[in-house]
Amino acid sequence: MNYRHAYHAGNHTEMLKHATLVAVLAHLGRKEKPFFVLDTHAGIGGYDLRSEEAGKTGEAEGGILRVARADPPAARDYLALVRGFDPGGALRFYPGSPEIVRRTMRPQDRLVACELHPADVEILRAALRDDPRVAVHHRDGYEAIGAFVPPPERRGLVFVDPPFEKRDEADRLGRALAKAVRKWPTGTYIAWYPLKDPDVPARIAAPLAQTGVETLRVELALRPLDGTLVGGGLAIVNPPYTLPDFLDALGPQLLDAFGARATGAFRRDWIVPPA
């Protein structure tokens, strides 16, 4: 339990991840019927980018602060939400995934947020306790996937943003997702993974490929693999039909915002293509 989101909030891997989350939530909100969101590794909800933890890494300067200055058009809705999280407009505060979901939900929608770190879950509970649409659980995120799907709403999203502290994390993530997809094959799932270990994407994709359910993969790297965290990827089960075009616009614009068009790479392909 060493990993804490506070040290990495707003880093360069979060732009693709959270802009995609905003786009999928917007798509879910186009129908009047309620939707459900399960956030399996929720963190504390919101982050002070001037905190001691954030200051130790300085990752936000090369992430959200740089992208906000570039203001890429495809990220406009995401950046508007981020700026709205800081009333002062200085981008001092950054919303984690529970706050992104909460600020996108309507009165009829519902969020279950799970966090295993004992200190972080109490901070998250305090931040969200006044919202009746939200339930916070001190629970292992992978176990929660099996427990909460399928939801009564029968439409919604499972968002999985694990710490990747353990060597078998990619295998555990792939197995948990595939099991959940078999239980709830019509749900949408977004799972994040780091671009650091070259075999991680394949270890996640293999179990998902066996489900036969439409699954998109997207990756953004600022430079070739070199043993450090060069970027991040997403496996997206049942993506909205508008998402591929959105990602094709977002990826190159983020590379430009990072000044990484020459050294970086954007990739989008299908683990399981549309039928």
Short description:
This protein has about 280 residues and is α/β, with parallel strands linked by helices.
Features:
eight-stranded mixed sheet; 275 residues; two-stranded antiparallel ribbon
Task: Report on the architecture of this protein.
The chain has 275 residues and is an alpha/beta fold. It is 37% helix and 20% strand. Strands 5-4-1-6-7-9-8-10 form an 8-stranded mixed beta sheet, sandwiched between helices. Strands 2-3 form a two-stranded antiparallel ribbon. Strand 6, helix 8 (169-183) and strand 7 (188-195) form a beta-alpha-beta unit. It is globular, with a radius of gyration of 17 Å.
Secondary structure blueprint with pairings:
Blueprint: H1 14-28, E1 36-39, E2 46-48, H2 52-57, H3 64-70, H4 76-84, E3 93-95, H5 97-102, E4 110-114, H6 118-128, E5 134-137, H7 141-148, E6 156-160, H8 169-183, E7 188-195, H9 200-209, E8 215-221, E9 231-237, H10 243-257, E10 265-272
Parallel strand pairs: 1-4, 1-6, 4-5, 6-7
Antiparallel strand pairs: 2-3, 7-9, 8-9, 8-10
Helix content bin = 25-40%
Main sheet record: 8 strands, mixed
Taken in chain order, the helices and strands follow as HEEHHHEHEHEHEHEHEEHE
Strand residue percentage: 15-25%
Structural class: alpha/beta
Are there runs of 5+ residues with pLDDT below 50, and where? Answer: none
The geometry reads as globular
Strand order of the largest sheet: 5-4-1-6-7-9-8-10
In DSSP terms (H or I, runs of 4 or more residues), the helix count works out at: 10
**Span of the ends, CA to CA:** 41 Å
Q: Kindly provide the radius of gyration, computed on alpha-carbon positions and rounded to a whole number of angstroms.
A: 17 Å
Number of strands: 10
User: For the residues shown, what is the average pLDDT?
Assistant: 95
